[in-house]
Amino acid sequence: MTDTQTVDTVGRETEKQPRSNRLVLFALVIAMMLAMLDNMIVGTAMPTIVGELGGTEHLSWVVTAYTLATAAATPIWGKLGDMYGRKGVFMSSIVLFLIGSALSGMAQDMGQLIGFRAVQGLGAGGLMVGVMAIIGDLIPPRERGRYQGMIAGVMALAMIGGPLVGGTITDNWGWRWSFYINLPLGVVALGLIAVVLRLPKKRAKAGIDYLGVVLLTVGITAIVLVTTWGGTEYAWTSARIMELTGIGVAALVGFVFWQTKAAEPVLPLHIFRSRNFTLMTLIGFITGFVMFGATLYLPLYQQSVQGASATNSGLLLLPMLGAMLVTSVLAGRITTSTGKYKVFPLLGSVLMGIGLYLLSTMDTGTSRFTSGVFMAIVGLGLGCLMQVTMLVAQNSVEMKDMGVASSSATLFRTLGSSFGVAIMGALFNNRVQDVMAERAGALGSDVTEQSAQLDAASLAKLPEAAREAYQYAVSAGTHSAFLLGTGVAVVALAAAVFVKEVVLRGAGTDDEGSTPRPPTLDAI
Hints:
By secondary structure, this protein is mainly α. The chain is built from 18 helices and no strands. It is found in: Cell membrane. GO terms for molecular function: transmembrane transporter activity.
């Protein structure tokens, strides 16, 4: 089939919505669920894992290895899909993820588990970007909002249900099944993709940009380690953090320079010439910054100040994640029916900023209902932003760059989450320590050293003065963290103002944007 024939048949095939199309989308949802659920499930199983394997001092690396590998691999998977074809590359990422899952379930010590989690993370980077890029290939921009809204809903459900699923699996089947559960689901997704998905085959003339891959991997790894270790494992001004910062900056500067020379750059810099693409990657960065910062510190506030149980920690975030799910689906449907989207980054940034400011006003007397309303407002804002940012980023580039556009948007959101957790965490922890020193003196220092283990039951055992001081300190820390988030939301609003609305194409309509029509999905 020629390119012209492909263009002419896209509208008819999309309007028919063949059964194969729906099956592919079902497989993509499974793949996205695998990537999103994994950390949530494993986090719940970690106490049991440490109890059996030991190695408490390396506990954080079980998560960090996965996160690092995912972030570093994401842009590489996107570029490989653009060069060699989406289907084979995506299936390879699923296979790698499943190998990592099987090996992690068989790990005999903490060192093995960390290494196998890195393998799993390498595959996970391809799962997330592959799902978004394939949707970009199969679905015309105007219809994409509906499906990407569905993907955002899957992400919200994973964040809510992950801890509950992880706890149930660990209690009834053992922690190893936290990894083995991926295998049957992955095989189903792999089988559907192999049989049903039809995409044009590609073969790039240029080779892989190995130097670009190395420089980008080193730069991203150094940045994620700085944001992960800074203020926790090492002081922000320590030699190790300074060394990592220098390495990261040098690698990324070298990467940018090399991308202007490479025959087939990993991350073509010309995509950033599109104003909408650049603005949407910035808004995506801020969305990750806010969402993951909030999901980390809101449960801490609710457990420490409001006395909530940590057993069902995912449910503590239900107001925010539920609101995010609803608005992400609605935003997708409205975008599909109207072809317009600018209102969502504007409205989302405003709601996110208002909600974060309200969260910053919480104190020791704030009720759970009130904090739930504040969280819901933040969730409404995040729902408006989650997938619209990906949709507009994809619509701002040519089809040949769909993979790198999807991977770049995903990467910036991932980096935003790392920065959000690190910077909001630094403000939170410093404020808690200062307030405890003021209100409880030496006893305050002892309490803050144990703060990671201070759940509602532990707090009840503290002397009343120390307990009240700690609750006040957590409220003060929450105020600082979410006030920062409010300022970041203002930056997102400023970026949204400058977004240029290009009406999205519907199936069978003439091009109104700069992106060529996507390839066809052959019915079976």
